[in-house]
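Quick one, T. Sequence first:
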Amino acid sequence: MITVGILADLPKALADAYVLIFEAPAGDNLVIVKAILMIGLFLLVVGGIIAVTQAQRKIPVQYAKRMVGRKVFGGQSSFLPLKVNYAGVMPVIFASAILMFPAQLLRTLGAAIAEKGESNWAIELANVFASRGWFYYVVYGGLILVFSYFWVSIMFKPVQIADDLKKNGGYVPGVRPGDPTAKFLDFTMTRLTLAGAIFLTAIAVFPDLIFNVANVSYNVATFFGGTGMLIIVGVVLDTMRQVETFLLQRHYDGFLRKGRIRGRSANSNQRIETLELRAFEAEWRPLIWISVLLFALGLVGYFLKDNQFFS
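Structure tokens:
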């Protein structure tokens, strides 16, 4: 629902971008350059968000061999994935929500001071938060950093992970099991969280930078970063993973060459997989076309809103 609410502003953003590029003043000879830069910058921001969202540090884990009767268990190599952006979009949401309270509180306090006729320092301080100057962005970045570590401290448990590895006979090469492993994981996650917090701060501030420096409509600038793009990219990636998992479950027999049921022939397996794929496409095709139709209607309606026939 949040993603759909954000994408509902996309037709208006496209209309503003069209006005900015194709309805520029006659003396502006950099229209094509602006369009290319905007498209390239958009792709760069989306690619950066996807890369950092998917980025992870793989900690190698080795399992010791165990003899159970005449069988040998273990001796396998695996890895422990630690995400760079472990907290996701939550620190940005928390920081934005908390920064709304000081301005509202100071305005209420300033109204009470104004009735007494005293110097209204509260309104001046509220304007500092509302104007989004350097002080606002410093506090904003600090809150994102604090909430990133706060979220990781709640969700990531290095002591529990180290104990589970020790119980299952696993260890990190070069690190002793138990408490040293927990300290190593905590130290590694601390550095990764710092990198993720810096990335979140840059993405959160980037739309304001585009709006103030490039003189772009804020409806367009919001799709060059910020909370909205983080949510959209996260939801799209999660949807792709779910669809991929669904396809693997529906067609799992087609990936197993040795474990097929003996009563089936190759032609029957291929026929069943084709029917399942067609059923999957039949389920999703109406939803895709309905989404495209609604988006097209919204875009056409926005461009024709000033027409006298619709007014």
